[in-house]
């Protein structure tokens, strides 16, 4: 599944339901620490709001430890969880959403709150600019010195990231690349691949 993250800074979207204002803030947050810092920032921005409810997937979608939400005083399960459900059914990652509510004098009821918070997030996501998250796979190459010319030519892939070259009895190279990069690397070294020790996170 493709994963995308927000590329807009300070994104804001506002809607009104029965005179209650719902202000949605979205931020790119690669870690739970970034998410919590953003939540604190919005709380400080709206100290007099009735509620600052939030949800985040602050990391990759497969890491459930990076998922969290809060109703911030709304009835249990009527705000944070519905917001997180919207994120769960999107393709987004590294994202934190805070919905600030200013009460308008008319109670919405549990069902109305679930709909209001869900729509505050889903409508905001329709307007949000995103960019695709490209996963970089760490790899290690170990090869005889006489293959240096071959490997340097093969490594001339613009998006391939070389982190370290270490010369011992062999040349040890560590780096990162996309799955396509690593497939291209292997293909370009087909004739000497049997002389190379190779490992990446896809094979571990």
Automatic annotation (TrEMBL):
One of its GO terms (cellular component) is cytoplasm. Residues 18-125 form the Impact N-terminal domain. GO terms for biological process: regulation of translational initiation. InterPro entries: Impact, Impact_N, Impact_N_sf, Impact_YigZ-like, Ribosomal_Su5_D2-typ_SF, UPF0029_Impact_CS. Pfam families: Impact_N. It comes from the Bacteria. PROSITE patterns: UPF0029. NCBIfam families: IMPACT_YIGZ. PANTHER family: IMPACT FAMILY MEMBER YIGZ, IMPACT-RELATED. Belongs to the IMPACT family. This is Impact N-terminal domain-containing protein. The lineage of its organism: Bacteria, Pseudomonadati, Pseudomonadota, Gammaproteobacteria, Oceanospirillales.
């Amino acid at each position: 599944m493709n994963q995308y993250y927000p590329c807009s800074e300070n994104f804001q979207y506002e809607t009104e339901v029965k005179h209650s204002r719902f202000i949605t803030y979205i931020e790119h947050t690669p870690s739970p620490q970034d998410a919590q810092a953003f939540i604190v920032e919005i709380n400080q921005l709206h100290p007099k709001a009735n509620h600052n409810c939030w949800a985040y997937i602050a990391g990759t979608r497969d890491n459930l430890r990076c998922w969290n939400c809060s109703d911030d005083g709304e009835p249990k399960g009527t705000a944070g969880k519905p917001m997180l459900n919207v994120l769960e059914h999107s393709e987004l990652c590294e994202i934190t959403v805070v919905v600030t509510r200013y009460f308008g004098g008319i109670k919405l009821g549990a069902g109305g709150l679930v709909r209001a918070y869900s729509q505050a997030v889903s409508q905001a996501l329709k307007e949000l600019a995103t960019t695709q998250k490209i996963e970089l796979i760490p790899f290690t190459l170990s090869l005889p010195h006489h293959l240096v010319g071959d490997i340097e030519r093969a490594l001339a892939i613009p998006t391939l990231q070389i982190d370290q070259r270490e010369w011992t009895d062999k040349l040890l190279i560590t780096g990162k690349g996309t799955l396509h990069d690593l497939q291209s690397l292997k293909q370009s070294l087909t004739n000497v691949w049997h002389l190379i020790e190779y490992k990446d996170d896809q094979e571990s």
